[in-house]
Amino acid sequence: MALLSLQTEHFRNLAPGSLSFSPWVNLIYGANGSGKTSLLEAIGYLGLGRSFRQNRHQVVCTEGHQGFVVFGEVLPDTPDARNLSGGTRAPRCRLGFSRDIQERETRLRVDGENVYSLSVLASLFPVSVIDPGVFDVVAGGPGKRRQFLDWLVFHVEPFFGGVWQQCQRTISQRNQILRSGRIDDQQLQVWDRQFIEVAEKVDEHRRAVFAEFEAVFRSVLSDVHSEWATALKVDYFPGWDRKKGLANTLREHREQERKVGHTLYGPNRADLRLRYHGRSVAELFSRGQQKTLVILMKLAQGKVLASHGKQVTFLLDDINAELDLDNRRLLAERLNRLGSQIFMTAIERPDPSLLWEIPPPEYKVFHVEHGRLTEEQTSASGASE
User: Fold this and answer.
1) Which pLDDT value is given to residue 122?
2) I want to staple 272 with a disulfide (CB 3.0 to 4.6 A). Which of 145, 204, 294, 370 is the partner?
């Protein structure tokens, strides 16, 4: 879907009021601290249910207030809906997120009706963030790559979210037994059976989606004229030795898990292993190569979802500080080809001609100052009037 309008109340330093966006490309610029990233955070709340910068809701609430609201209208996942003109109006979906900080209560709404799971909002509005922190997908620990894969699995496999939540609850219960110090082997075996059953379901979903991702990622790499792109290998590791099986692995490492007090093998230890000539790319690749690699992985994610009829809204935060011009062009051009909606922030006013050989169908430029966005006239908007 594409976000057409946004309203916020008491969200960081954003000024109240309604904003209208292009369903294709939105370029936002302003000084540091002006509210550029806050805008992307607010958009992210409609698709992620949280900030991509902080773990606590209260940090995004304007000082002196006890709650905040984010409300948006999105278009359905059909290219025709974004190309309608004149008096024709495509059907829209209304998404809302509010948080009462004092009561610690979250309220979610879709088309005026209450919903009770963040997964409902997430499934309706896929949001992918590319900010300085995303490059840890390559250089960081397995958790970052697991999160990268699971975001894609969630949007492709409709039952994955529930299965993964069930798996996490089982792991939590199993960890309590391991930490208790008085382990009842019979009780642990009961939880092991439940754990193995749900772990295999999680693994099945992940393997199926990874197979899709790997094929698309390989095609994306084929357009990169560099030796490392040819020699790069990406493998999915489920979190245990598949040849042994999870049941045998747990039995063999029972004492080890008792000593550490938590589950060491299972879907909670899954990873995407990126290797170049048999060694981790984190050890061998330069910072610039790692950034290029993450961009290509994000593009592959978007292509997989596009093949399932879903368009991703990409939030590109201050990428000028992280990416050279060639990589910015690579990212912007490929996202434009995908038909993705883009929100891109920068300090200086962006020049679309530097990013695209063929301009996007429509773009808007906004200047932000003290949390207030002002739309500026562009050649694209002038041509459409």
Assistant:
1) 92
2) 145
Non-local (6+) Cβ contacts of 131 within 8 A are 37, 40, 52, 53, 315, 316, 317, 318, 319
Considering its fold, how many domains does the chain have in total?
1
pLDDT given for residue 359 in this prediction = 79
> ∠ CA 306-18-350 to the nearest 5 degrees?
60
Question: What residues contact 263, with CB distance under 8 A and at least 6 apart?
Answer: 171, 174, 175, 178, 195, 257
Tokens 């899954």 belong to 270
pLDDT at 18: 92
Would you say 149 and 206 are in contact if contact means Cβ atoms under 8 Å apart? yes
> What stretch of H or E contains 346?
strand 341-346
The burial class, CB within 10 Å (0-12 / 13-18 / 19+), for 340 is buried
The torsion region of residue 74 among left (phi > 0), alpha (psi -120 to 50) and beta comes to beta
Which DSSP helix (H) or strand (E) runs through 129? strand 127-130
In a domain, 335, yes or no: yes
Q: List the end-to-end C-alpha distance of the chain, in Å, as a whole number.
A: 24
| 241 belongs to a structural domain | no
Angle at 36 between CA 30 and CA 40, to 5 degrees: 155
Q: Report phi then psi at 176, rounded to 5.
A: -60, -40
> Does residue 112 form part of some domain?
yes
Q: Quickly list DSSP for 186-224.
A: HHHHHHHHHHHHHHHHHHHHHHHHHHHHHHHHHHHHTTS
Rounded distance between C-alpha atoms, residue 283 and residue 323, angstroms: 20
The radius of gyration computed from the CA coordinates of the chain, to the nearest angstrom, equals 22
How much helix, strand and coil, in percent to the nearest 5, is found in the chain? 50, 20, 30
Query: Does residue 304 lie in a domain region?
Result: no
Q: What is the span of the domain harbouring residue 319?
A: 1-126+311-385
Which of 267, 277, 258, 204 lies closest to 240, judged by CA? Answer: 267
The overall pTM is greater than 0.85: yes
pLDDT at 80: 59
Alpha helix (H) ranges present in the chain?
36-48, 79-83, 118-124, 136-139, 142-156, 160-179, 185-221, 227-231, 246-252, 254-260, 281-284, 287-307, 325-338, 352-355, 379-384
Residue pLDDT, tens place only, 341-377: 999 999 999 999 999 988 787 899 999 999 999 999 8
Question: Is 50 exceeded by the pLDDT of residue 162?
Answer: yes
pLDDT of residue 184: 72
